[in-house]
Amino acid sequence: MKGIKITAVTLYILSASVYASSDNEAGSLTIGAGADYAPEYIGSDKYDLDVMPYFEWTYGDLFINSEKGVGFTHQFDNGAYVGQSVGYSLGRVDNSNSWLRDGSDKLKGMGKIKSAMTTTTTLGWWISPWIGFEGNIIAPLTDSQGMQYNAKANWLLLDNDADTVMLSTGVWYGDSRFNNTWFGVNEAQSSRSAYSAYTAGSGVNRYDYSISWQHAFSSSWSGYAEARYSVLESRVSHSPIVREKNPVVMTLGVFYSF
């Protein structure tokens, strides 16, 4: 899972709690860099370390984010929040030569998963300052990689002027096109690769469990760390391209806000 994708996603989850619990009318700009140690692709047993820059601009409800794309998030006084964004899924390649996209030499013959523009609809609610729930619908706008749905629960274990510690659990659901695109092996792919044909049906494909820590070194500088443990569900973990059913992702980042 190349680059800063995990970093940016978790930062967005963390920012959702800020949006839902405070006024954020002033504009801000954040730049930085993040690194994650993660599998080469979902299901790979080979890990690599990737570093990429991070960028986010916000003004009121609007944001431009190097991971999420362009969109808005609006929070209500009762702790509920809604969001909509347009972003990009980079797809996957069948070699280890891509800096940005997932890929591995072990996927040789599987071909590419094309990049696609996507839209994400978000609905969440912090029912208290410490407990929140969120759901997302991720749909393709261009070449279809299928539909994704996820739901998560977030618990703020610590939240003060310097530190925020969050525990999160989530479940991911893919339609048949999504699960087969990322975990299936069709007849043509089977004939070109060393893998037997496999069909992954629609349904839950992954459970995530993570803990994250954000620390403010000053009013401008902050650091971020996260550990995430995932469990691939049987409908995808039985795929012949899956070599690691329980991947772990470690993330670090440092950021400067104007």
Word description of this protein:
- The longest helix is centred in the first third of the chain and has 17 residues, at 5-21.
- This protein is mainly beta.
- Residues 3-23 have low confidence and may be disordered.
- It is globular.
- It has 4 helices and 14 strands.
- The strands form 2 sheets. A 12-stranded antiparallel barrel has the order 1-2-3-4-5-8-9-10-11-12-13-14.
- It has helices at residues 5-21, 176-183, 187-192, 234-237, and strands at 27-39, 47-59, 62-65, 69-75, 80-89, 92-93, 102-103, 116-126, 131-140, 148-159, 163-174, 203-216, 221-232, 248-257.
Largest sheet: 12 strands, antiparallel, barrel
Shape: globular
Please count the helical segments.
4
| Residues in helix, % | 10-25%
- The N- and C-terminal alpha carbons lie at a distance of 29 Å
- Strand-residue fraction? over 45%
- Order of helices and strands, N to C? HEEEEEEEEEEEHHEEHE
The residue-averaged pLDDT reads: 90
Strand order in the sheet with the most strands: 1-2-3-4-5-8-9-10-11-12-13-14
User: What structural class is derived from the secondary structure elements?
Assistant: mainly beta
Spatial extent as radius of gyration: 18 Å
- Give start-end ranges of low-pLDDT stretches: 3-23
Number of strand elements: 14
